[in-house]
């Protein structure tokens, strides 16, 4: 249960533009970033780094759509 809550919090941090897996893992209570990655992947089927890339890409596409509508 605790690990699920920590992973949920990590997802929230990723969406708030935190991009360091080490920093995120410590912020949610993991002392070992590699263990955090393993737990994160267990719940989400992708690594935290992949999630960060996915969120960044999604935000970039949204930004580009907004920029195109302004012109």
User: What would you report as the Rg, rounded to the nearest angstrom?
Assistant: 14 Å
As a percent range, the share of helical residues equals over 70%
- The helix/strand class is mainly alpha
Please tally the helical runs, counting DSSP H or I stretches of 4 or more residues: 4
Mean pLDDT: 91
Sketch the topology as an H/E string, one letter per element.
Answer: HHHH
Reported for the largest beta sheet, the result is: none
Distance between the termini: 48 Å
Beta-strand percentage? under 5%
Low-confidence stretches: none
Number of strands: 0
Shape assignment: elongated
Give your account of this protein's structure.
It is elongated, with a radius of gyration of 14 Å. It has helices at about 1-15, 20-25, 35-45, 50-70. It is built from four helices and no strands. The longest helix is centred in the last third of the chain and has 23 residues, at about 50-70.
Salient structural properties:
71 residues, mainly alpha, 79% helix
Summarize the model shown.
This protein has 4 helices and no strands. By secondary structure, the protein is mainly α.
């Amino acid at each position: 249960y605790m690990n699920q809550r920590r992973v949920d919090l990590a997802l929230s941090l990723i969406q708030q533009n935190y991009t360091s897996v080490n920093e995120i893992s410590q912020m949610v209570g993991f002392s070992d970033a590699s263990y955090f990655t393993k737990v994160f992947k267990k719940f989400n089927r992708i690594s935290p780094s992949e999630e960060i890339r996915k969120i960044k890409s999604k935000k970039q596409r949204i930004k580009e759509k907004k920029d195109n509508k302004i012109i």
